[in-house]
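Illustration 12: Tyrosine--tRNA ligase.
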Amino acid sequence: MSESRTPVKTSYPITDKVREAMEISLRGVEELLPEADWLQKLAKSEATGVPLRIKLGLDPTAPDIHIGHTVVLNKMRQLQDLGHQVIFLIGDFTSMIGDPSGRNSTRPPLTAEQIKANAETYYAQAKLVLDPARTEIRYNSEWSDPLGARGMIQLAAKYTVARMMERDDFTKRFAAQTPISVHEFLYPLMQGYDSVALKSDIELGGTDQKFNLLMGRHLQQEYGQEPQCILTMPLLEGLDGVEKMSKSKNNYVGISEPANSMFAKILSISDEQMWKWFKLLSFKSLAEIASLRAEVEGGRNPKDAKVMLAKEITTRFHDAASADAAEADFNNRARGGIPDDIPEVSLSGAPMMIGKVLLGANLVASGGEATRMIEQGGVKIDGATISDKGLKLEAGTFVAQVGKRKFARVTLG
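Figure caption equivalent — predicted structure in token form:
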């Protein structure tokens, strides 16, 4: 029988600083596995002065991110602030396979040009959260391309089909007789091999990535390395407080959207939901958040806390002056005022039906939405609520408003 490939571990002292780092590591996480191993990695790092290697692998399948995506990035920033090194891994090789995680069909692969463009845009946005000085950008084609056919076969020999079929999405697709391509088995193997190539100490991901993250642990042991720990973060519910934040569900806050819109959207979440957002999105300490929550439970207006959260996040993705201006704009709107900076639109064809005016000013997406908003009392012209769906507007300049946040200064000729 061959000797174990797992390196012999040395036990390092658990100091107060290590315990504090562990508390920060556990903040808001879904799972940290195994906790005892991570505690020892933190202790080893403190004792030796060698930063730990924090891996996040991203397949750049879409170029834009919302604040739900930043939950994992925030955790990485917390670990960076403890002195550790983040590896921002662009899956340019694995993107050509297509990650089957959570899917009931094969994901179409991306072209090299799409991958490059998406990766550049994604990192430009991620830099708003991460510390670039402690961020190493890598592409997994660096070691995946040289692996070649021989290396791929040798890698595939280190895992069984039975174990691969334990993955939930594969199990469901097999039971439903939905096709599973052989190349899809290569995806978790290649993601796990990334951990071998990078010698990562911990890999972060969403809860849907757990199987792939554990693959990294397995393969590191196979290659004689100390296995990485895995850390999964919960999914952030969107503005509705129910569904996962998603652009398709229109319950998201985009990190590149205007400061005024970002601030107002965050102010719209529920008082209870606010505390989860604080835990997952704020850089305030847990002690500060607990103190603030105690003040609110003691009678302080919860809106005060929500404004703090909205200003912190808006400042992060814009700047402090923009956050202050967004707060002033929000307060002005709350008093029924008109924002200073609203779109100006010129239309011709007076007299014009109100629905057509709203459509032409990009305040509604369809005539049906215009009718519905009028029926709900959500349309104003120069501050006066409109109830007549058949209203025709004469030539002139006026401010049209739909809902609380959509305005346009319309010149109708």
